[in-house]
Amino acid sequence: MELNKIRNFCIIAHIDHGKSTLADRLLEITGTIEKRDMKHGQMLDTMELEQERGITIKLQPVRMNWKGFQYNIIDTPGHVDFQYEVSRSLASVEGCLLVVDASQGIEAQTLSNVYLAIENELEIIPVLNKIDLPAADPERVSEEIINLLGCKKEDIIPVSAKTGQNVEAILDAVMERIPAPFVYKGNEDVTKQELKALVFDSQYDSYRGVVSYVKVFSGEIKKWDTLHFLNTGKKIEALDVGYFAPSYTSSQLIDNGSVGYVVTWLKSIRDAKVWDTLWKAEDISGPKSKPEDAKAIEWFKTVTPFIYAGVFPMATDEYPQLADAMEKLVLNDSALQTESEASTALWQGFRCGFLGLLHLDIVKERLFREFDMDVIMTSPQVTYHVRMYGDKTSEYSRLLPELIEHEWKTKTILKVSNPEDLPPRETCETIAEPIAKIELITPKDYVGALMTLCQERRGVFKNQQFIDVTRTMLSYELPMSELIGDFYDEMKSLSSWYGSLNYEFVRYSEDDLVKLDILIAGERVAALSLMCHRDQARFIGGKIVKNLKEVVPRAQFAIPIQASIWSSVVARETLSAFRKDVTAGLYGWDVSRKNKLLDKQKKGKKKMKQFGKVSLPSEAFVNLLKK
After folding, report:
1. What is the pTM for the complete model shown?
2. For 136, 223, 412, 599, which has the most beta carbons within 10 A of its beta carbon?
């Protein structure tokens, strides 16, 4: 296929604005999938979990043909927790369709996606979807799009993805307005034979190993070609190449500028990473004939997780299966980061980094559905920056120490995502937490309630902007630790489900942060420790010990359950002991005999309390985390 006959683009939008439905109509109109073969809606949502929840979780490429042109389209997720999928898609295309709901208008994730597309210098085609709804207001929403993009009204394409109305106009606009692929800028002086292809996603197949999804920037990939991963240094043979229609469709080669897949037969997932570059140099002489001399494509980088949580198997002997499942899941979900972790209560597991709570929930669900692994997840935590006196790089090498000069003295910054890794109190100078910039778009009737919510969560007001006469965008700076709880649910509840949220990390800020420990019978339970603000420690600690009182098994002696900051107890509940009636066998005796037996029992319980141990069973731990 000639380069000027190829168009690569993706579909971006806020969640539930009709991206996947629009992709269905494009597949149907271009004849890529016959209508009788569309057994369900959202054909590109191939995962059972996606169809069940009605959301897109993974990007999905597909090739279609229209009037002699080859279209490579990538359907992307709309939720903020899967923003990394969107960024990788935008790095692999030259244009995008911006889909906006004609009844909802521009929402928070719409703005975020537009900024990403502009940053990647993509051609944006605005599409006004759901114009057939009775609540649609095309004039108002069109004005919002014009104000956002600075385009003309005739540039906006009104469609109904559900009925197919005017969808063909989108295909014609893609042909006219989105540019053809360009050769990677580092290759102007190199002949076409030098292949450079960007790996933007991967899948693991039990029979064929790792299958890499690639966008070819120069050269072409043929079956049985010898290829190199430039970053990992792995050498492979392309056992099969092809494109997506939308399932794997084998072909002889992947053209320059096209999107396709390469079957690598690799069984080790570490050798084929997302964002790597596939390289081949047949019939090339000179300094670039060796892989180590070739330059990889620098397009997008690895993502930084926002929250961390421990993942442990239900039974200790299931750890090998969990390790294998996590390795395969990381290949398919490149935003997920893992490292080994050990816990005294839950034994061996993993410390995992996620982009948000929905991402965490999806990973847990996928482990159960795809790998039959039922797991325990600890309370999510963010990464804190701890500043210490002096050079501590050798003592805390695992916490990525960084030396800085502060007040003419050398100090060390540690990155702590697990409260158990927090250094002793006397060695910590300050603790800084991540701050997120959030954008809330809501009808004006709910502004007061949402502003109160943000202020209760230690938010700092930054800006208020009126999108139109009925809707407002609020900008706040909020600690990331406040976002990972029930903030999203509270926001939706207070705005009657009309509000939308987008957030991004901006900086670290020092505050009065403390480590909250949980003690059962005087013994600290390491797996329940967490970081929080000092002002909230009493409330959070009281809530935890109250829940623990319901799940900790009773004993023959009273068990104190405490929450403490360093060495100060801020909340306490006492689990009463089992009572045995030692006077049941007495009849007609003097009261002194009864008191003697009760005193003897009292001394025994006191001794038992002194030497007795309380262990929190894993079942009780699971019940606590479910609350």
Report:
1. 0.80
2. 412
